[in-house]
Q: What sequence folds into this?
């Protein structure tokens, strides 16, 4: 199979790679050590592999790595605050917003993008955004609460 | 001032940090240099004879290392003979890969081993299998038909298990009855759907003749036992390492064929081999669950009091028995009466083989029981035109009835079903709800309330297995260790798949030992490190695992204090305590620091053994096994208020409330999380999830666009009310919980929809409660 | 779930893309890929050549030309939600876009991809028919416009010819003060529709009503409304000659029942919204 030479920008690092065209971004990111990109369904439904491409959340399993030359890809490895938890992650921790943790990085990437766009969110909107991700453990209540807590803390700090 | 106790604190979980930073280590995250990847070739037929398998083209593809079939494995893996010493079950056998015929769509017939999964999938398409289709059995009715084809030639009538039970005098009860109420409950096929699918990675070291197995599994030691037996190795030649597990729900307990084949291939090829199931395989061919039908006849007196009950239980086992075929249904029969007074009771059960994916236990495998019993209570209320709560009050066991031995020999000593029901009804304001419902009904709205009382059998002791005639043990073992520096750990053979054991087992061990929970490291998921454990099944983690960890900690504390007494020149350790790692001594009215810490004791125990009391062994470690009582129960009452749209049939959950008695709770945050998740799974299953087969045995729900699970927009905010009564028989009064939420939510939502539609004369006797179905029922009722 | 191999091209110009499409009889256009890639991962689609049009910036534009809102094929669903021209002149499109799948899908999925995929339960084919859109198709040395009504043939089937690329869709802009509404029924928000209806009411033109998700292609039911004055009459007329698809999850009679409700709600809202 033909290998394509590409340059990927992942979490602010540049990678020169040779990849087969058919290799999914989710697999290539994992090969680059971004194992927080979880593969859950490979048809775009579960959301576990969600990453940010130029700031927008997207399913990494529905992109070919070869498509993304020059675009900024951000994975869960880029979140956090100096090796510790950032506000959203801390809120997930504090209100038990995760159990097995497999869906969590994908959710964080979508919700991180959401919190960058919006300062206030009502519960219905949060639920709507969370509904693009499947979680089999939590029943979602604590995930929704985590987002609300992160928003409240951010508003207080501002 | 002493620290708060370790048990009972809502501590955020220790394991969260790595998951939130994307640093979890799930199966795929474990790097194994040179590992080959496999892809299974699966049957497109529900039932077909295998004439020939041609692997030449696949083997010729660059990057392919080998292609193997069932015949290739015959000498390497023994067949699985499922022949438990249980009456009423026919023995069955399962080959590693079938070579004579396939029995369901997705049955694996060959395995491609290649440099990566992409190439393995390419090669799998090149394997040519010559099939001769056979008639397919796609339903229980089809399986039982007079001239039905046989799924397994050794199982006549496709009936793999059949038995009957009777206690008391059911016939007499029905003779005395003022009325006999009949009801039917049809539950549909579902699947566990962990977001991380199954998988395994195996490394065989030919020099040491040792097999290292990485696999997300809820019960690593029993898995190792099974692997050793099937591969002809000793258990000490295998290490099972369970990495972080992305959900299990029962799908990751038994040794299934794919994992077994991969382990054998690693040994055969002398190269690391790994497999990760993809989502289509997971839906099609992993394990399915819950396809059961129960019909009941209830004999009642004029007040609706239950005099006798007869139940007929039928289950669809699918194509193979990876579990004893009647095990789950026998327990369904045993626990069916739940929290109700019942002496005269009989059930019979039949388990059928069909050409569908094999069934296995899924979180709350006996979930149907609560729906059946609570649906029966509602049916009695409707037959008598009585309030369903009043009917329950007349039948529920009260505190004064305890201890109570049920018709099937279950012994309740600490349940509080009446208490949780009243607490839940108060939380809802039942009377106000009924008044509002009447008003809304007058306006034409379809509004309903479902009530479901649950008695959850959380923790099976060895005595239960023995009494039920089922092979198995309920004990669990923990090792608590203190290192020379004073560092603490607890090792348990359970494996977590999201339940938070790294936090709660630390709390239990810390409670026993007398240290801060944060000071205890939990070591799980490695068969070489943890003592043999029976695994995370049912809801046994807290009572069995937590119980063992607590007891081991307490025994180690005794040794620590004996050493402390010696060092403090006291005659005995009476009046000493270990709190947050400090040795305290009674002085005046309270406890004062003695100046000694756990680290001081550890230093002596390891590095100055001559400083120990005479005859004491050096070191600080205790391994303790704990076998819980025959059965431990938690209980809860679930209330679900819904509205059904008359046209679309869509069910909107307006309120969901559960009052629960989970006994002494190790960590309230974790318990509430378990309740949320369990309730969500039950609601999702009853309203959305459905694995559909056509009459040729083709599966029509093969993707997540077809197999729908409820998301954040469909599930309600869940209100919880704690109504705790510590267990009288277990350490610390722990009861355990994790499955009752599934039982309660299925029963509550089904009964709610039944209540909403009852004014139209509609009877809800089957799930799922899909909008199309409800809409059709409503439309038909309007026409009638 | 890994796709079969393919030859990948990422043309930088439209001409280059059209040349690649002309040269192969087994080429797939990759736009957002939110339908194509799942099919490729499941090996239900396996084109020999994949022509990735994501670098064709000229296709990623929204503009007004006369009485037409022209939306480039590469415009993402998400960017239509908040687009100022859309919000000002045709907010209906914005409210339709909001109901498509979920955010991480909408950020990538494109209007052109959705139109060519022609899923009967998708929003854009319905919008195209409702708003008397013209579909712009280009092939090497050729360009044509086709009415949306003639573009959709059936479920997952269009009159797109070999070598052709859908480059834009030209929606007719309703007059200022128009009323419009969209209703759909899904099992869960973001799922494909079981049935849907969309309606536009203008002062100086006949009412427009289209329904989707019910037959294999979107239906223009505007003609059925001619001369009718009450909503119940209109519902009856709009649903009369419809033959709904039948599948286990949404039987034909179910689609018919919910369609009547959707059409009614839609008409009522559009009529209320007109010039208010």
A:
């Amino acid at each position: 199979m033909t290998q394509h030479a590409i340059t990927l920008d992942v979490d602010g690092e540049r990678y020169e790679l040779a990849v087969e065209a058919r290799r999914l971004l989710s697999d290539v990111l994992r090969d680059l050590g971004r194992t927080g990109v979880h593969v859950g369904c490979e048809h775009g439904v579960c959301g576990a592999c969600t990453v940010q491409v130029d700031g927008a959340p997207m399913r990494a399993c529905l992109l070919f790595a070869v498509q993304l030359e020059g675009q900024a890809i951000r994975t869960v490895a880029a979140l956090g605050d100096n090796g510790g938890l950032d506000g959203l992650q801390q809120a997930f921790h504090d209100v038990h917003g995760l159990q097995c943790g497999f869906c969590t990085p994908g959710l964080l990437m979508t919700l991180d993008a959401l919190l960058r766009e919006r300062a206030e969110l009502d519960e219905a909107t949060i639920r709507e955004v969370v509904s693009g991700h499947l979680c089999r453990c939590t029943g979602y209540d604590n995930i929704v609460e985590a987002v609300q807590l992160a928003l409240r803390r951010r508003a207080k700090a501002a | 001032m002493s620290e708060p106790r370790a048990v009972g604190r809502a501590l955020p979980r220790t394991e969260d940090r790595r998951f939130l930073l994307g640093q979890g280590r799930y199966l795929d995250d474990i790097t194994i240099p040179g590992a080959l990847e496999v892809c299974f070739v699966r049957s497109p037929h529900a039932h077909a004879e295998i004439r020939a398998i041609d692997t030449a083209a696949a083997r010729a593809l660059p990057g392919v290392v080998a292609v193997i079939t069932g015949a290739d494995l015959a000498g390497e893996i023994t067949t699985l003979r499922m022949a438990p010493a249980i009456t009423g079950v026919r023995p069955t056998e399962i080959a590693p890969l079938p070579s004579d015929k396939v029995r369901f769509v997705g049955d694996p017939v060959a395995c491609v081993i290649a440099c990566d999964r992409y190439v393995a999938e390419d090669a799998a398409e090149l394997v040519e299998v010559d099939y001769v289709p056979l008639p397919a059995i796609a339903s229980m009715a089809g399986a039982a038909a007079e001239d039905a084809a046989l799924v397994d030639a050794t199982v006549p009538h496709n009936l793999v298990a059949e038995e009957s039970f009777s206690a008391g005098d059911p016939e007499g009860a029905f003779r005395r009855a003022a009325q006999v109420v009949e009801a039917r409950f049809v539950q549909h096929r579902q699947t566990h759907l962990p977001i991380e699918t199954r998988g395994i990675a195996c490394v065989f070291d030919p020099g040491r003749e040792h097999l290292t197995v990485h696999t997300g599994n809820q019960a690593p030691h029993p898995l190792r036992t099974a692997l050793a037996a099937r591969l002809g190795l000793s258990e000490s030649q295998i290490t099972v390492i369970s990495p972080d597990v992305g959900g299990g729900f029962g799908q990751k307990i038994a040794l299934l064929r794919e994992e077994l084949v991969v382990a054998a291939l690693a040994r055969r090829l002398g190269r690391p081999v790994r497999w990760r199931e993809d989502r289509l395989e997971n839906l099609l061919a992993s394990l399915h669950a819950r396809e059961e039908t129960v019909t009941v006849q209830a004999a009642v007196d004029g007040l609706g009091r239950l005099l006798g009950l007869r139940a007929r239980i039928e289950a669809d086992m699918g194509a193979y028995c990876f579990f004893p075929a009647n095990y789950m249904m026998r327990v369904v029969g045993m626990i069916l009466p739940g929290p109700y007074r019942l002496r005269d009771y009989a059930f019979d059960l039949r388990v059928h083989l069909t050409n569908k994916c094999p069934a296995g236990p899924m979180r709350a495998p006996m979930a149907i029981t609560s729906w059946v019993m609570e649906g029966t209570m509602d049916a009695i209320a409707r037959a008598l035109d009585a309030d369903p709560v009043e009917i329950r009050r007349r039948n529920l066991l009260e505190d004064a009835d305890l201890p109570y031995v049920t018709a099937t020999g279950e012994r309740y000593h600490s349940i509080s079903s009446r208490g949780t029901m009243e607490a839940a009804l108060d939380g809802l304001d039942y009377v106000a709800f009924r008044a509002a419902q009447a008003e809304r009904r007058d306006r034409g709205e379809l509004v309903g309330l479902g009530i479901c009382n649950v008695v959850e059998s959380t923790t099976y002791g060895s005595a239960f297995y023995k009494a039920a005639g089922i092979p198995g043990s309920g004990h669990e073992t923990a090792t608590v260790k203190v290192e020379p520096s004073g560092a603490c750990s607890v090792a348990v053979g359970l494996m977590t798949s999201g339940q938070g054991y790294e936090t709660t087992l630390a709390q239990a061990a810390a409670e026993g030992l007398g240290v801060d929970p944060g000071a205890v490291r939990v070591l799980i998921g490695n068969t070489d490190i943890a003592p043999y454990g029976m695994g995370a099944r049912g809801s046994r983690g807290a009572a069995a695992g937590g119980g063992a960890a607590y007891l081991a900690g307490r025994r180690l504390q005794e040794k620590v204090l004996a050493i402390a007494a010696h060092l403090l020149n006291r005659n005995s350790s009476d009046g000493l305590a270990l709190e947050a790692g400090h040795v305290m001594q009674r002085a005046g009215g309270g406890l004062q620091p003695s100046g000694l810490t756990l680290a001081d004791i550890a230093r002596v125990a390891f590095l100055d053994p001559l400083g120990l009391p005479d005859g004491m062994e050096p070191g600080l470690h205790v391994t303790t096994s704990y076998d819980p009582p025959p059965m431990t129960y938690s209980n809860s009452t679930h209330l679900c208020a819904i509205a059904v749209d008359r046209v679309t049939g869509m069910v909107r959950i307006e309120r969901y409330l559960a009052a629960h008695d989970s006994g002494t709770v190790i960590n309230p945050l974790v318990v509430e999380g378990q309740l949320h998740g369990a309730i969500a799974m039950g609601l999702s299953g009853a309203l959305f999830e459905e694995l559909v087969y056509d009459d040729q045995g083709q599966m029509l729900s093969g993707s997540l666009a077809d197999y729908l699970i409820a998301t954040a927009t469909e599930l309600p905010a869940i209100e919880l009310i704690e109504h705790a009564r510590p267990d009288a028989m277990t350490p610390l009064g722990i009861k355990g919980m994790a499955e009752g939420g599934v039982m309660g939510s299925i029963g509550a939502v089904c009964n709610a929809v039944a209540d909403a539609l009852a004014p139209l004369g509609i009877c809800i006797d089957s799930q799922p409660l899909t909008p199309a179905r409800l809409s059709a029922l409503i439309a038909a009722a309007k026409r009638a | 779930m890994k796709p079969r191999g393919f030859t990948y091209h990422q043309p930088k110009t439209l001409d280059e893309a059209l040349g690649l499409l002309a040269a192969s009889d087994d080429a797939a256009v990759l736009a957002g890929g939110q339908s194509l890639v799942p099919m490729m991962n499941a090996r239900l689609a396996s084109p020999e050549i994949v022509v990735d049009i994501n670098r064709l910036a000229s296709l990623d534009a929204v503009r007004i030309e006369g009485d037409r809102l022209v939306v480039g094929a590469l415009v993402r669903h998400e960017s239509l939600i908040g687009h100022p021209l859309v919000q000002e002149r045709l907010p209906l499109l914005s409210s339709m876009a909001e109901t498509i799948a979920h955010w991480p899908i909408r950020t990538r999925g494109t209007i052109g991809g959705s139109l060519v995929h022609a899923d009967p339960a998708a929003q854009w084919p319905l919008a195209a028919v409702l708003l008397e859109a013209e579909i712009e198709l280009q092939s090497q040395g050729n360009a044509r416009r086709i009415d949306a009504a003639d573009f959709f043939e059936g479920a997952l089937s269009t009159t797109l010819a070999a070598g052709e690329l859908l480059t834009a869709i030209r929606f007719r802009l309703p007059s200022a003060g128009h009323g419009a509404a969209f209703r759909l029924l899904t099992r869960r928000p973001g799922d494909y529709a079981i049935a849907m209806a969309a309606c536009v009411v203008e002062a100086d033109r006949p009412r427009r009503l289209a329904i989707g998700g019910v037959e294999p292609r979107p239906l223009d039911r505007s003609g059925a409304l001619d001369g009718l004055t009450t909503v119940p009459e209109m519902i009856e007329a709009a649903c009369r000659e419809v033959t709904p698809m039948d599948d286990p999850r949404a039987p034909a009679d179910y689609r018919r029942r919910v369609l009547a409700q959707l059409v009614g709600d839609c008409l009522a809202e559009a009529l209320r919204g007109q010039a208010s």
User: Anything to note?
Assistant: The mean pLDDT of chain A is 97. Chain A touches chain B through 55 residues (CB under 8 Å). The domain at 3-78 of chain A is CATH 3.10.20.30 (Ubiquitin-like (UB roll)). DSSP finds five helices and five strands in chain A.
